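Late entry, written up from scratch paper. The run itself happened at the end of the previous shift, but nothing got recorded in the book at the time, so transcribing now.
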Amino acid sequence: MLSVSNLSIQFGKRVLFDEVNVSFTTGNCYGIIGANGAGKSTFLKVLSGQLDANAGTVHLEPGKRMSVLEQNHFAYDEHQVLQTVIMGNKPLYKIKKEMDDLYAKTDFSDADSDRVGGLQIKFEEMNGWNADSDAAALLSNLGISEDMHYTLMGDLDGKQRVRVLLAQALFGNPDVLIMDEPTNDLDYETIIWLEEFLANYDHTVIVVSHDRHFLDSVCTHISDIDFGKINHFSGNYTFWYESSQLAARQRAQQNKKAEEKKKELETFIARFSANVAKSKQATSRKKMIDKLNIEEIRPSSRRYPAIIFEQDREAGDQILNINKLKSSHDGSVFFDNANLNLAKGDKVIVYSKDARATSAFYEVLSGSIQPDSGSVDWGITTSQSYLPLDNSSFFETPLSLVDWLRQYAQTEEEREEVFLRGFLGKMLFSGEEALKMSNVLSGGEKVRCMLSRMMMQRANVVLLDEPTNHLDLESITAFNNSLIKFKGTVLLTTHDHAFAQSVGNRIVELTPKGIIDRYMTFDEYMSDEKVKELRDKMYAS
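Output as recorded:
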């Protein structure tokens, strides 16, 4: 279907890919993974023809069509929404536009009539007469209502544009579908719809995503970028991660017999296959459990930061009491009549359909802004550490990372450069990296610094507003595992489904008419019919 031969890509002295040979076959979904800077997005651009490689070729089977999720959200501002979606099938749209132009001629000739006749035959073969209705159905499934279908793209907000561009990529059943971070700016319900759509998609999908739940739900293969090469591994992301970790442990076990290692790997394969067989994926066209192969299991060169949250002291029974809390801005009520009492050890997923509401909630709890009304009372034995959505104010002063982190040291020992360098090394700032200036860091590097700050504070309550933004899969996985092990109290807002499901034991949803508070997992909350009815009432105008 789609193949890459002897592909090499180099920027200056930096080699991203060195003679890569790989094929993507029909009926499979490939999740492209790799450390930050490994070349994931670059590889997709080469596959789609947006970027030329230094050497090698990309070959798409003749007669097959490729579709790419548009990354420029302003590229279609002058076009109507429905038209933008249909433009996703370029051959179909070209025929449609030519027919429309011919019909619009004031001097329509016999030759024009003959031309239109030929175009109509091609148009019908491409199911063109159903294009408007198919595009409208896609838009509706993605939350773009019918009254917006003839609106100009330039008049939509950012999240609506993302949905339209996603519909454009999916339109017309392309033979190869390429998507870079397709779940960004999508809400929970839309992501679930997309997962179901792709899990049952008949053609080839190639996707880059930091959403582990998404990769687990849709992928038949993980395509790992490592050491300038790309290797396919059967299975989803969780299988790749757990198997690579197992292989790394086995490699370190020098004295363990080969037979024992093989038996351990076989047991792992059997356990994982049994779990997959019970999932919705097993009923789709993706039969990855039939292809899991012990020979494919090998250790990864990935580096995972040592994210470990510890408490300076354990909190008492009184953690947090919120009474009749309200917050609004410019006439929009984020939440009202919010009453909440936290117990020790609660790990709360704070959720809202309006992202502004959750951020305002954390700003009120941290004392950064004042509520419209109500009170916030922290227990006297609690200490809080906060990771805000916007961390830019922490990096305005140009300091080396050693000096930046020294600001948050609690003891003389922690102020020593040897200690600070060791601490930063565990967070993947080793050697000269520890002397980088704090005001020139990437988004992911800033978040790792903020996590270092939080770990040094050793609070017994952590507040986290979208903490996985900008992080790579390795950092997200390490962060996720650390919060599961953390003995303190957690308040967490995240668009990362796997993060929310694995960490939270309580869901608190903020609405303009109060809060919904349930002790259950995130998946249980989102699928509970009584909760759905209550949510509809709480958001109804």
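Residues 258-277 form the longest helix (20 residues).
(Scratch paper discarded after transcription.)
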